TrEMBL record:
Xref: InterPro entries: PIN-like_dom_sf, PIN_dom, PIN_toxin-like
Domain of life: Bacteria
Positions of the PIN domain: 2-51
Signal peptide start and end residues: none
Organism, scientific name: Pseudomonas fluorescens
Protein name stated in the entry: PIN domain-containing protein
Length: 83
């Protein structure tokens, strides 16, 4: 199954280890579905994750997993597979 996620859902998963967004993140990491995204969305996540207010509340390992080339959500509108 392929899924397109809103950036706010992705950020919510990066902020809190509880709730529906984190359950979605964990299901993706468990390879229960593939996420389809764009380079623009990944750039937005990278850029916004560097804001000082967000750095204090984000889980850095999740940011890296979500945006790393080949290991997280893919870019250029192709399917992303979890490892």
């Amino acid at each position: 199954m392929r899924v397109v996620l809103d950036t706010n859902i992705l950020f919510s998963a990066l902020i809190s280890p509880h709730g529906a967004p984190d359950a979605i993140y964990r299901a993706w990491r468990a390879a229960r579905f593939e996420v389809v995204t764009s380079r623009m969305q990944l750039d937005e996540i990278r850029r916004a994750s560097r804001y000082p207010k967000r750095q204090a509340i984000l889980q850095p390992a999740k940011v890296g997993a979500m945006t790393a080339a080949g290991g997280g959500i893919g870019a250029s509108n192709h399917r992303a597979r979890s490892r």
